[in-house]
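Collaborator request, handled under Task 6.
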Amino acid sequence: MCVPPFISGWKPGRGWSQRLPHVSALGKIFMALPLGDRVYQMLDLKLLMYVDFPAHMNPGVLVTCADDVMLYSAIQSVEFTKPGFTALAHPSPLSIGQSHGVFVLERGDELPVCDVEYRTCLRYLHKPSVDVMRRSGAVFRKHDEEVVYTDSTYYISHGTVEMLLDLFHEIGPLSCEIDAYGDFLQSLGTNATAEYTNNTENVMKKEKDLVEVRKKIFQHLRGTQLNVVILNKSKFYHLGTMEEYLFHLTGDVCLRKELGLQTITFSSCSQSVCENKNVCIIQSVVHPSVRVCEGSVVEFSRLEDGVELGQSSIVSSCWVDRGLSVPSNTFMHSLAVCSDSRTQFITVAFSVRDDLKKTMPSYAEVNRLEVFGVSLGECVSRWGLSVGDIRFSGDGCVRNLWTCRIFPVCEDMRTSFSTTLQMVQAAHGNEIVSLHKYTLLSLQEILQHKDLETMLKFRNNLHQDIL
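Structure tokens returned to the collaborator:
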């Protein structure tokens, strides 16, 4: 396969998965899914979902997200043969439209009714408010409910890919992050305007060249066709946040039935450790005395005797020592880091409801950030630190939980987990800990120094023990 020069050696800038951080190290496309006797990944499911597409597709590029599942039933095939862009669209409630892309379709007030229907798109809205959706004419009434048509996967024809290559050569080396959805699709449609190019509301890092690059993209793609394939019988599942991930893997009866999701997948674990079937355990070694409560996920971990995991929690790539208790609604993930040829371990922890992207404009507004439902200022005091001790990685311009240096570096996995668990318990007001003696890193820095070889070796050891 010939790889275009703008893809070769390229790394997606927005691929850190800040809303689902346990898949950040390897990437969301390698997210483990409880689909069978062996551990399957999102990549396997994506290839299965789209296996019929190439037979009905002209040469081009197919772009898809790594954190969604699309299931559809249609008598006729989906065709990708038109020039320009062709996007799949799914009926969704307005609440879903607010965090995804929404298509403004050419129509009177006619609601699409066929299983598969081809429409021309007037405009693409990126994460619009309900008011913007209404004013733009994107909202349909379906029975007694309001729906919009949201994005998932799209196709770029060969001729349009060549046009993008020309643009890449014109711009030269990219100095800012480009969103494959927001920055491309907003420039398409007969009613598209350049207004979006100045709107950086949904951009985490506001880079100086972004607006100019967006304007060049708009000029280059203006007038390019945006065809929409409406899949009215489709079901769209988004696994991109911790709460969505937990719900779809444990509590979503529909998805469990349609995909055959399992409670225990390739693990040394008895059914008795699970409070009920609404639990998910993937490639883990779990002592028979462990208790895993409803709505929780354990993956690639070793849980010693007497461990308790509360409700709606995520434990990923951890070695949990005997007798430890993880509170409900807690996310914990251990990573290996390498510095000066030395491997050490860090366990990160958050509430599954924490917003890792939320920023604080200045240090004076430190309490805008919350960890475990408690202000960051209050939390650091419970960790034996002061507000003045808070530091952020990178250039210091982006101040959020992703860049906040609060996680202690330890010499082994078990110590790392138990040390961070003490931080979690202190945040809940159960004890006071002191982090003064530790080197503290942010999740951003941890990923920059990750030791994937050591992390994958731990997974392989679990695999051998399970066999």
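The cover message to the collaborator said: "Residues 184 and 217 are 7 Å apart (CA to CA). The chain has two domains: 56-238, 242-466. Please let us know whether this matches your experimental observations."
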